[in-house]
Amino acid sequence: MSAALLFAVPALTLLEPSVVDSLLGDTQxxxxxxxxxxxxxxxxxxxxxxxxxSEMPRLDxxxxxxxxxxxxxxxxxxxxxxxxDTLPDSVFFPGLVxxxxxxxxxxxxxxxxxxxxxxxxxxxxxxxxxVAREIAGSIGRFRVRRPTFLGGVAGPLDVLAAGSGTTDExxxxxxxxxxxxxxxARSVTGYFAHVGQSGWMEIWDxxxxxxxxxxxxxxxxxxxxxxxxxxxxxERTAALAPVGTLILEPARMVPESAGAAISVxxxxxxxxxDYLEFSxxxxxxxxxxxxxxxxxxxxxxxxxxxDLWTDLVDILRGASVTVSLDQLSAGAR
Amino acid sequence: xIGGSALPAGPxxxxxxxxxxxxxxxxxxxxxxxxxxxxxPAYECILTENIDxxxxxxxxxxxxxxxxxxxxxxxxLPPRVSQEPLVDWxxxxxxxxxxxxxxxxxxxxxALAIDAWIDSVTTxxxxxxxxxxxxxxxxxxxGRCEELTxxxxxxxxxxxxxxxxxxAPWWSSCDNNHAWLxxxxxxxxxxxxxxxxxxxxxxxxxxxxxxRTAVVVAVSPDSVPGALAYRGGVSLLxxxxxxxxxxxxxVPDDSTMVAVCIVNYGAIRPVFMLxxxxxxxxxxxxxxxxxxxxxxxxxVLTVSAGDTIDVDLEHPGQIVGHFLMNYPQP
Lengths: 333, 330
Description:
A: alpha+beta, C8orf32 fold, Immunoglobulin-like, four-stranded antiparallel sheet, 14 strands, 25% strand, globular, B: Immunoglobulin-like, 16 strands
């Protein structure tokens, strides 16, 4: 193999055999399929299979079939260059190989969605952003229905066939459609004052992640009231809205009994931003959108009773606020 | 008995009362209560087999004739419990559950035998957000409380034992929450844990927690008058008083939506909403924070057994300060 060829072949980032063994050891009943599949592919397909194996929830590993896995892996590989001259692996795997948007069932959807949108779109050969906007506009005409207690989140093909879905299901169809077309996409969770928790999709426009909310996502104009947004492990708040910093100095409490949360006011209640994970007994710095928050520090007593200390905190654009949780629990703040 | 003796609501349900319980009556009930996503041609075979087998087993077990039609429709017939995938569990589980139940002779020992069977083949473990099917739980032997409850209820229903899902949205006296099930008996609804072997119905490891928690709700798959809430096509029946002493929280107007909250995992969290026209709820003893309006107003309420406490919408309290959220000892 020449030096030039060696240089051209990217190093594979594969899972260690021990990691594969650990994951498949917890995949009762479907372990043989996975081992056979991993042995049957190589190169980028193997990297993609490894990526999905390591990222997907256990239930997906149990339910996965060859047809579904191949649909996502080879569908992503075949469409990787449709809208991008180059698509970094850091975007390709979570944006295009990934198949999940919410809690929908595991299905193969790429070929039928690709065919559907190529039949429907005015100009599928346009840019990623323009195609995404046209798909969003089309799904925006779907009927939005209220969630039901019985039955889970519908898969994208069922939503398409029904012409309706919950806000979550319409987002599932949108994300699946984008990926089927070859547009890298990821889901974002956000919290807003007045609105509470919401979500939307972002697409990779070739150089950056671009928010692409559906009409049904009910995102306020100009992201007004955005408190916090996160895509996977990446915080997105500062990219979308003016932010400030909240510095929390720790409380002297037994960590096991201590709890803390930051909530935003919405729909007649204080909605905790559960994606903000932090320990009240350790220093931490949080980036939050402009606005008012309810800071809560709790200590669970052995009896089961809870001491709850609260304070309202104003976060201003570009400013830092420091709160000593120790002083809060002592009543000194 | 709470909720179970209530009659089906609506014209379709009224019609059912005037007819013998036929496969068509069962089909009509399911058509009125299942989500639209279950009523598609792909699931036609599962639904038809589910109806035929449920009726056939009812005719073959000694306790079948004693089950009122309204209980059978709501708590034996449904092919799903929660958000799990719709699968053909009834014929599969009946193979084991029906002989086991017949061998036990009566409904209560039969329910305990099936609970012991599920306990012997499953273990509680936290899984993923998406509910797995009862087949996945059975095959893998692992599930969280709701998934174990689904499997246990499907096994009970396959042997024509009426049962319903029950849960505490959040515990008051510790972090976390729990889901379990109740079995309908001639003496009323009796609780059982989804995967813990028990000697009798009516208790579980969770009943101490339940006796001092904010609210316990049972799920009915249709609209039940007097329910705490009718949301997403099901009624949530307030069964808190079946588990411990209760008082009442009441909203003294017709229009304000009030969130009844406790502290769990470090945050003030709503355990339920009092949405008009529901204006009161039975709750366990203890301290609550109730919130409403914009800007968000709040008040701290202490509820003792037998109390009726009105939310003072005109004079809200302070949200900032120190609060002791206390609960009775078990």
